Amino acid sequence: MRRAERRTSLLQAAASAFARGGFQATSMDDVAAEAGVTRLIVYRHFDSKEELYRAVLEQVSGHLVEALDQQSGLLPADTGTGGRVVGAMLAVARRNPDGFRLLWVHARREPAFAAYAAEIRRGAVAFAEELAGPNAPGAEPLHRWSVDFMVTAAVESVLGWLEHGDAAHDDDFVALATEGLRGMIVAWAGAGAGAGDQVTTAAAGAPPRPAG
Fold this sequence. Notes:
Order of helices and strands: HHHHHHHHHH
Shape: elongated
Number of domains: 1
């Protein structure tokens, strides 16, 4: 196996092991067993358990940034295509489900990685505010709550679908989740600026995006 392929395989295995057992309780031997390799091979790629955990987080956040950058200028006017942004998030999650869970659920509970998780969250909220800010409630604290809630809704919808959904129906989920986010922003815009005002297409399909 090529080095890059081995590294990807180890990151996938590490994500599963860490998501199942937590950072403290998971050893490099556990990761090796999950990957079906020896401990020596794991250490050839990663000097420590902390480096390995952080590498999983950085891989997933990097994939999210890349996927959302590719789609942010291509948002459809409706959900007929399944919603490119939520679809991009789900594609990253399908690529490494446990890595996605590690980034958005487990890392914030680990003292060594809570700051990284908070940084990702701040980047996601800032991106949501950039796209939906004009349509979200203008007065604080409602404004800050609304953009933060957009991130929560998008991330939790993908996490929930990973847990309970069926990959064969991913397109149905993406369409419904995208329409739900759009409806939420339309309602906010109508309440804050009058029902006749228009919500921008970009904001209506706004994704959360981690800091790059």
